[in-house]
Amino acid sequence: MHNKALTMFDLTGRTxxxxxxxxxxxxxxxxxLALAGATVVVADRDTExxxxxxxxxxxxxxxxxxxxxxxxxxxxxxxxxxSTISSFGHxxxxxxxxxxxxxxxxxxxxxxxxxxxxxxxxxxxxxxxRAAIPALKRSGANGxxxxxxxxxxxxxxxxxxxxxxxxxxxxxxxxxxxxxLAEFGVTANVIAPGxxxxxxxxxxxxxxARERGESNTDAVDADFATRIPLGRWADAxxxxxxxxxxxxxxxxxxxxxxxxxxxGLKLTx
Length: 269
Ligand SMILES: NC(=O)c1ccc[n+]([C@@H]2O[C@H](COP(=O)([O-])OP(=O)(O)OC[C@H]3O[C@@H](n4cnc5c(N)ncnc54)[C@H](O)[C@@H]3O)[C@@H](O)[C@H]2O)c1
Prior knowledge:
Elements: H1 2-7, E1 15-19, H2 24-35, E2 39-44, H3 47-59, E3 63-68, H4 74-88, E4 93-96, H5 111-139, E5 144-148, H6 161-181, E6 187-193, H7 199-211, H8 218-225, H9 236-247, E7 258-261
This protein binds nicotinamide-adenine-dinucleotide.
């Protein structure tokens, strides 16, 4: 009985791609999928950190390889899927996590900044999903599309108009994917993280601290934590574990959903 329950959380034999997997949340997702037995292709534009991440997973006893991929390049995205299939024979789990979040008020936002955010966060996820769909269909009931959005889709922040549009778009896109893939048994869901300590959010937190005349982010972090019912910021592992749940056989009947992984933050916003 106990063993049967464990098989519901086992990803042995599955192949996963995690974009933006070299650092931050993507790294936490890659590590957790590997812990459950999946072979994880870490796909990031930062080649050095990408290789280091795959190496860390391998050193810990998991299976991982690094493929450099810039999500703004259709050529690199196509090559990522082709190379994954030729190396491992199949692709079962796709996690679209890579995203950027430079801040700018809409009135001052350069068109180039808008375009870059949409190009990486939304167009990139579309291109990779489209390239992966034939393989996901072949994977059938093992097939999983998991897209990372943000609590920003619940309540926006000043300076994040482009990002919020991209993340709202990801959620709507995922619902369409869920409808189109359902007949093959493939599920499509969104994980919406709350406040997570990552290299990317460190830049935002540094800016806030500077605006407050503070030399580090300790007070900013502590103030924000008081708004989170569970009382602390998430780390990449918290998001990685929730993503793992959606990737497992146990989640085979969950599709078209947005799961907030935010320590309850949405309740206080
Ligand atoms: N950190 C948070 O508080 C938070 C909250 C809500 C949602 N999110 C979402 O979680 C995801 C990860 O965020 P994070 O905070 O870990 O970011 P991060 O900046 O710490 O890490 C992002 C990773 O993506 C890679 N990347 C960026 N642009 C890329 C591109 N064009 N092609 C390939 N790789 C690229 C980076 O090299 C990096 O390794 C994003 O989708 C983000 O929107 C984060």
